[in-house]
Amino acid sequence: MQAIEKPAHCSAGEWALRNQLAHCYHLVDFFGWTETIFNHISARLPGPAHHYLVNPFGLNYTEVTPANLLKVDLEGNKLEESPYDANPAGFALHSAVHGARDDIQCVIHTHTTPVSAIAQKKAGFAHDDFYGAQLYGRVGYHTFEGITLFEDEKSRMIDSLGDKHILVLRNHGVAVGESSIERAFFLLWTVQRAAEIQVAAGAHGGEDNPLPASIAERCANLTAMLIRESGFATKFFDAMVRKLHAERGASW
Predict the structure, then answer these.
(1) pTM score, two decimals?
(2) Where are the transmembrane segments (predicted)?
(3) Could you read off the pLDDT of 25-58 as tens digits, one per residue?
(4) How far apart are CA 99 and CA 73, in angstroms?
């Protein structure tokens, strides 16, 4: 596939972010976590204006490129010409988080079958398996209010998220947010694995082996430290991009 050149008006930093975000879209498709053309991933651009990049609505995730990502403000207005619009259901969620949490630079929303099954259950995520333990104390829960289209829900979503980085949208799906695209993707992978294992364990006969809260907390704290204080998430993200390219060829 022919390489896409950086437009003259785009800074090197923004172009690097666009490439990384486009790779994230392709990885979510590669892992089978897409919901056809729906759901959304956003990355905040540097600067005080809280502008962010998001996918053009109507494209498959495999059709997202660095060049066709939309640049929008917190009201969802396009800041550059594009033949595409964004998914209106994404603005309330992404603009709420990017407007309120300076520590979150990337937000990923999915509703895979295992994740949606956990979101359906009143108890939410358990913390008795290797991946579930890593989520201990890191999950907020938001009551379902219908499709996230309306301005007035934004403050309630932020209250539900609090200082956490995982928001279970009850009866719906999940949103994760982190300080970089790589960290958000690794967190999403952890959430997805936790959901898969919890659903599989629930379908399997026999008594669960519960973990003490102290062990789960220690596991969650260690994982958070590894992500924030080492190149752990970057190594993982880069390895998955190499795997994607090896199996599918160049993305653009």
Answers:
(1) 0.95
(2) none
(3) 999 999 999 999 999 999 999 999 999 999 999 9
(4) 10
